[in-house]
Amino acid sequence: MSNNATSFFKTVQINFDKAAALTEWPKGLLLQIKACNSVYQMQFPVKINDEYQVIEAYRVQHSQHRQPTKGGIRYSNMVDQDEVMALASLMTFKCAIVDVPFGGAKGGIKINPRDYTEDQLQRITRRYTVELIKKGFIGPSVDVPAPDYGTGSREMAWILDTYQTFSKGEIDAVGCVTGKPLNQNGIRGRTEATGRGVYYGIRECLNYPDDMKELGLTTGMSNKRIVVQGFGNVGSYSALISQNEGGATIVGIAEYDGTIHNSDGIDIPALIHHKQQNCTITTFPGATLLKDKDDWVSIDCEIMIPAALENQIHQGNAGRIKAKIIAEAANGPITAEAEQILLDKGVMILPDMYLNAGGVTVSYFEWLKNLSHMRFGRMEKRFNQNTYVNIISTVEDLTGKSVNAEEKILITRGADEIDLVRSGLEETMVTAYGNIRDVYRSRPLVKDIRSAAFINSIDKVANDYISLGVFP
Length: 472
Ligand code: NAD
Description:
Elements: H1 8-20, H2 27-34, E1 38-48, E2 51-61, E3 69-75, H3 81-97, E4 103-109, H4 118-134, E5 143-147, H5 153-166, H6 190-205, H7 209-215, E6 225-229, H8 233-244, E7 249-255, E8 258-261, H9 268-278, E9 288-289, E10 303-306, E11 325-327, H10 336-344, E12 348-350, H11 352-355, H12 358-372, H13 381-399, H14 405-412, H15 417-442, H16 449-467
Parallel strand pairs: 3-4, 3-5, 6-7, 6-10, 10-11, 11-12
Antiparallel strand pairs: 1-2, 2-4, 7-8, 8-9
The protein binds nicotinamide-adenine-dinucleotide.
Nicotinamide-adenine-dinucleotide binds at residues 72, 147-150, 194, 229-235, 254-256, 307-309, 329-331, 356, 359.
């Protein structure tokens, strides 16, 4: 991206303004919805080897119209105030779109996690958590972090442990953070949740014949060619589930150190295994390594999934994109300048604030589980199972025919936590897409899905402010 390109936060604000102009809400209310309410910038010392490093970090709470606020924590040496404010803003709109009753927040620590040992990362994470506690920027009813770029369940466990150390018997303390390991009050299905939500979102979009006809595509995901940028948590699960459950062909994967291509399809489970063993995708035997890693943008495909970082599709490479659909698994992967180029080319953009909302949706389920102190499915699983068994045996008695043992197990199975989480996530993503598409199709002035998503969420947040009595 060139140095004079629009900043990430500015891009979010430009997109907000574009959509807000199509609503009838008063100016003051729109300004409040757009503003970042609380920005906490901190610096703290951590001893690394023989010397102290001063670590720069942030937590931004964009909006408290619903509480707690919620949003991931990112470890990257690109973290700055602009980035965290942009990400926190997106969280507000994201939560509104999927009807998750939280305000938006985000955190970031300006480090490259690859430069630190596990022990050093643990000390940085714990110190950051203490800073959040000191200023009241964390707590199950206040602000609840989660994983994001460069963090995962390990960091969330450290945050939980630090918070509990200071929380003096607070009964709901485990709800202070989500994305925790399963044995530390996490929930089944959280690790895959963002990628699975990306899959449900793309699948839903591909289901509408009129929309696909306009793009020159057939309906359905089967055999659609997909290119993914970023093979971390979100990118790898998006690719895996799109291949396994959607029948898509993943033809290209881009990572920070190289891009691989195979027009017949890349075996994603094998690639995941290869990356785990070798810490790189570039040596994977089942694909060709491109000479120029930046050529990921021009690989022939129908769908492109940027799943790395913001500003990856910019003025300099947007014109080379062949995909008909760009599915924003990452937050803010398209700059404001590139957005216009793509829309002019007739590309459909599935916006981040909808498409990657699977993570916060399942984080919401985890938080509910933590507050109820009970796993989903525990009360009803056996009851449902017994009811189904009784129905089958009644039908068998009445018809004189019997259901074979294998089918019986399948039909009578009660739902486990993972079944309920996936079902809740699927319902959320399908319903939200329907709501956004209604705005897109019913309002002639709305020309793109991002604006439709913004309008959908602005309406919900505005109504909240009005019912709180903050605005008349
Ligand atoms: P991650 O750290 O697990 O993976 C990111 C991957 O991108 C890494 O493998 C990294 O090497 C790769 N990468 C970095 N720079 C790259 C480049 N220039 N080209 C190609 N690959 C590059 O992070 P993640 O959790 O998968 O997050 C990815 C994106 O998804 C971020 O924008 C994040 O905000 C967003 N997101 C994540 C979640 C979540 O639940 N983790 C939820 C919503 C949105």
